[in-house]
Structure formats: C-alpha cells, structure tokens
Amino acid sequence: MTARHVLIAEAFRWACLAELEAPKPGNVHVFADGHRMTATEFVTSADAAAPSLSAAGARVGERILGAVEATFSAVGSNTNLGIILLCAPLAAAAEREIPDLRTSLVEVLQGLDRKDAELTYRAIVFAAPAGLGRSGRHDVFGPATGSLLDAMSEAADRDRIARQYATNFSDIFDVGLPRLDATSRQDPDPRWATLATYLEFLSAFPDTHIVRKYVSAAAEKVCQAAAGLKLSLQTTEHPETMLADILSWDAALKADGINPGTSADLTVATLFASRLKAALP
What are the residues facing 34 on neighbouring strands? Predict the structure, then answer.
C-alpha cells in the first residue's frame, strides 16, 4: 500500500470516528448507543472497511462489496452500508492524483460500469438495509442491466445516497462542505461543526432512511425540528449548554425507533471529503 493509499484509509477512519464524537439526534454516537447498535461497533466497522475502501486500483464496486463483507465479518450486522456507498467513489477519486477532488470524482462516476453495478447489488442484498424493496428497473435482486450510475440515477428520486451519484455528490460539495467549513472557522471544537453539518442535511430535506421505514410525514416532522435546532446552534456562543436538550431529543427519537441514517451517512462522506482535500496534494 502506497503512502497515498494509507492517507485515504486514515482519512476514512478519521471521518467515521469524528462523526461518532458529535451528539447527532437519533443516530448512534459516543454519548448514546441506539437502534440495537453501539458506537464501539461503528469504530470496529470503520477499521474493518478501511482496507477495502482504500484498496489500490480497485473499482468502486469492488471497494463496496469488500468493505461490506469485511464489516459483516467484524460485527455481524449492517452498520455502514450508506457510508460505504458514499465513500467508495470518493476514495477512488482521491487515488487518481487529480488536484481537484470533485473533478476526479466526476470522472470516476462517469466510468462506472455494469460490473460495478453487479458487485454493488451483491453488497446491498448482503447488507439487507431496512426498507429495501423491489424495483421495476435496476432491481438489486436481479442481474445488472446497466451501469452503477444508471441504477443510482433510477433511484435518485427516492434515495438521497443514490442521488449523490446522479448529481456528482452535490449535497456533499454544495451543502455539507460549506457548512462544515463555516462552522469550523467559528468554533475550534470539531464536534459542533460535525453536528452543524448533520443538522444542515437533516433540515434541508427529508431523511430517506426515515421515509423508507415510516412515511414522509415522520421525516418532515424531524426535518422541521432539526431546522429549529440548527438555528439555535448557529446563534449560541456556547453550544455545550445545548447538550442536555440535544440528548433529550436524541432519546425521544430513539425511543420511537427513528434513525436519520441518511443524514449521518452524508455527514461521514462530508468529513471524508474534507479530510481528503486537506491531506492529499
């Protein structure tokens, strides 16, 4: 493994662990486990997935399937499928040594083929995420009939992770990174920049993980509550004083079984992209 690939693997682990340090309402973090998952399992998952995510010369589909299988070998459950789906193209883009990460990512996405789709379908079926259904076209339970980009574009209207493939990761580069950078300049504690990024996603659009498990109305309600919390976080000079209220909402969401998993996955991908941009020439 070259020094560049070591940096990619380290950036992935860092992003996963940094996301866990923030008190993200409804999601697993170091302040509170939830949804029959623990923060320790997510740390183990990050360590397990990193080698496949950063494998030299691997196609995106190979990175995804390898990381999912390694995760299940380590923890026996689906803790990070969304994270892997988002971070695999970013890792492949970082490997290419093109100065602009987003430019490199566009080339990676345009190069996805049917083999990438086949491998990714296997990974998704293996992980069996909550709410996984059947589709008339590009069904993960059937043979791949087009490229992975074709399949993701087909699902873009109903799945925010798929939408990233179809839009060149617009939510990461146009929503997440600006919020992360702006908050990081205001507060030296990275936990609050991570939380602000999470709330930016959670308030900007209904979390599709919630929509799949429940209904759009539940996701909209969470979206509105996140908007209020985001405003409070932006206007306070001492975010640590908000922790009790944040954890109270966190507990209520978890008691109702509501997990904004897509917003958390987008947050990890934003942290990963940020770290790659900072660490790699």
Answer: 37
Among 110, 48, 115, 116, which residue's Cα sits nearest to residue 77? 48
What is the C-alpha separation between 241 and 132, in angstroms, rounded?
Answer: 39
DSSP lists the bridge partners of residue 37 as: 34
Q: What is the pLDDT of residues 128-162, one digit of tens each?
A: 775 555 454 556 767 788 999 999 999 999 999 99
d(CA 69, CA 278): 29
Tell me: the pLDDT tens digits for 180-235? 999 999 888 999 999 999 999 999 999 999 998 887 888 999 999 999 999 999 99
239: Cα separation from own chain's centroid: 24
H helix or E strand, kind and range, residue 152: helix 148-155
Tokens 């493939």 — which residue?
A: 165
Map tokens 């493994």 to a residue: 1
Query: Which residues make Cβ contacts (< 8 Å) with residue 200, sequence separation at least 6?
Result: 175, 176, 179, 230
Cα–Cα dist 58/95, whole Å: 10
Q: Which CATH superfamily is domain 1-281 in?
A: Triphosphoribosyl-dephospho-CoA protein (1.10.4200.10)
- Domain layout of the chain by residue ranges: 1-281
